[in-house]
Design a protein that fits this description.
Blueprint lengths: L3 H7 L12 E6 L5 H16 L2 E6 L3 H10 L6 E4 L2 H9 L10 H8 L3 H7 L1 E3 L5 E3 L1 E8 L2 E4 L1 H7 L7 H13 L17 H14 L2 H8 L8 H14 L34 E2 L19 E4 L11 E11 L4 H9 L3 H10 L17 H11 L3 E4 L1 H4 L2 H16 L4 H11 L3
Parallel strand pairs: 1-2, 1-3, 10-11
Antiparallel strand pairs: 3-10, 4-5, 6-10, 7-8, 7-9
Helix pairs in contact: 2-13, 5-6, 9-11, 9-16, 16-17
Amino acid sequence: MKSAFYASVAALAVTAHAAAAEQITVFGTWLSPEAEIVEEIFDVFEERTGHEVSYVGSDSFEQQVLIDAEAGSAPNISIFPQPGLAADMASRGFLTPLKEGSADWIRENYAAGQSWVDLGSYADENGDKQLYGMFFRVDLKSLVWYSPENFEDAGYEIPETMEELIALSDQIVADGGTPWCIGLGSGAATGWPATDWVEDMMLRTQTPDLYDKWVSNELKFNSPEVIEAIETFGKFALNDDYVAGGAGAVASTDFRDSPKGLFDSPPQCYMHRQASFIPAFFPEGTVVGEDADFFYFPAFAEKDLGSPVLGAGTLFAITNPSEGAQELIEFLRDPAAHEIWMGHGGFLTPHKGVDASKFQDDTSRALNDVLLGATTFRFDGSDLMPGAVGAGSFWTGMVDYASGKDAASVAAGIDASWPD
C-alpha cells in the first residue's frame, strides 16, 4: 500500500516524459529492507515517466557486475558501494559518462559539490577523465560520541576546533578522568578503526589533493605527511592518560565494546570517535539525543583546511546506456527522491535542496547538518586502496603501531606491500 507521503510525492508535477517507455534494469547491493525503499523511489520515477524499473540486489555485486559487463549483459544502471570498482570499470570502457551539465549541477546543489564531482569522475580507456557517477545515500564517519549528562555534570563544552578538543582531553585528565575510549578489535578485520582515525587526521593535517595522492599511492605511506597523520592519531591512542585501560588496551579492545565506557558510572571515558552506525553497539535502551549524542570531529584551526568530512556512499552509474537510464540518473537530482528514504531513516544526503523536516528523527537531521557543513568530503581511503593494503597491511600495520612499533617502520612496511 502506498503511504500518504508516497502519494503526495507522486502527485508532484510530472517531469519530461521519455519519447518511448523503456524497461530499465538496476543492479546493486541493497537487500531487504533497503531494496523495498529504493523500489518505492523507483515507483515515483515510473509514474512520472512511463518507464519501468527492475531492481535486483545481491551480496555478490562486486563480482557479478564485472562478469556481466565482460559478457555484454550489464544492467542499465549499477549502484556501486564504493568508487574504486567504478573507476576500474570506467578505465575498461564499461561505464557511460553522465549527460553534459551534470557536473555543474552537482557543484551547485551538493554541499562540498566539487568533492562529489571528483569522487564520481574517472579516466576512461584513453586516459580522459569524465563524470560517470551520481552519489546517492551517504555515510558519515567524522563524529565524536559522548554522554551529554557526563559533559553537563563536569561542566565541559563541545569543542569547535582540534586545538580545543586536545585542550578538553587535557582538562579531563587534570580533573582525574579519562577522555577517550578506543578499540581496534574486529576479528579478522582488526585494525580498521585506526585506519579511519588516520584518514580523518590526513584530512585535518594535509590538503585534499594530498589525501587523494596518498590513496592512489602517488604519495607514499612513509612520506612525512602520512607519518604526521599517523603520529597525530598516536597522540590520542598511545597516551596512557588519554585512553581507558591505557594505551596497551587499544589494540585488544573490540571496537563494538569500546564505546560502552561512556555509559559507566563513573564514566570510563568521555568521548569515542566513530561513525554514524556505532549507536547499534550502545547498551540496550540507550536513547540517542538524550543518553548519547555526537559532535563533529573538528579540524585544526591553525591548518585552515575548512571542515573536512570522511565517509562513504553509494554511486549510481550507467553500465548499459539508454535514454531512460540517463533520465533515472537525472531523477536523483529531485529532492523528492532523497526525501522518500529520509522518511524511512538510515539515509543522509549532501543535497542542499531537501526539506530537512522529512528526516525520520532529529538525530538524522543533525547528522545531515554535519554533512551539509562539509567544505571537503572524502571517501574512506582504505576502501579505495588495493585490498592487500586497505583491507590488509594498513589494518595490521596500525595494530603494530598501537602495540608500540614506530610510525616510520609501520609506514615502510605498508608501502612494501603495495601491489606493483
